[in-house]
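Notes continue from the previous slide.

Worked example: a multi-chain complex. Inputs as given:
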Amino acid sequence: MQDLHSHSSRSDGRLSPTELVARAAEQGVDTLALTDHDTVDGIAEAAAAAYNHGIALVAGVEISVTWQRQTLHIAGLGIDPDEPTLNDGLADLQHTRKQRAATIGSKLESLGVVGAAERARELAGTGQIGRAHFARVLVEAGFCKNFQQAFKHYLKPGRNAHVPVEWAALPAAIEWIHAAGGLAVLAHPMAYGFSNNVRRRALAALAENGGDGVEVATGTTPPDSVARVASEAGEYGLYASAGSDFHSPEQSWLELGRLPTLPNNVTPIWQAPAFRSLTS
Ligand code: AMP
Ligand code: MN
Ligand code: MN
Ligand code: MN
């Protein structure tokens, strides 16, 4: 069982890399990719844990990209976490995250959320700070009844505490992933709120820039979307990936390894010649 998309506390996941890998093993996952937002900090710890549990770890990352003024997430799978080009690129994104957090903090402060930035930084610890930490702050402070509401009412584009930033360019993100020996995959293509046309343009742009794959199956992809993205993968010559995008045990509707199976008309990315996992 493969799960090629997951998060730890090195970004906005709630489990440490060790706890995440233990849970994956418990759920019967035999190949797990750790794909934290804009960081590879958790890879060494996850690899050690995977070794202990006898499962394979794919060293991954989920890179924030700005494409035609929209945010895309490009997963890098099978990367060398020490490769300098990738790490230089990620360092810029990490800087952008810090700056954005300060601005989100002041916006929330002016909306009455006292100490928002400080509390979000505390929740993020030494991991990459993101909107998810601010969502938790909003719930804690009683401004929203749950995490989803915090995005809906404060943090998503168009809302009062949304801070637009320029992430990596699409060709750059693909280059960094390739420099580090990995495969570049468009994450959760149905989760951007794109029309069919815009999603197809995104897949075309990915393919034109040398990208390798698209997530056909995620933890929340309904069957008709799996079939649709599978046929688009074929059309654009992309491998099919599968990953839950697990963040937290509290999200009871989404579990590690619990994914729709890939249809027969796609080539799974783990069959790509360049696909690499750190096998125990
Ligand atoms: P960021 O990269 O910091 O802008 O945050 C993006 C992350 O926020 C995603 O990876 C999800 O973990 C989370 N997220 C985004 N939108 C939502 C939403 N509507 N509901 C819950 N979580 C969300
Ligand atoms: Mn996330
Ligand atoms: Mn994502
Ligand atoms: Mn993700």
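Summary box: The longest strand covers residues 56-67. Residues 14 and 250 are 9 Å apart (CA to CA).
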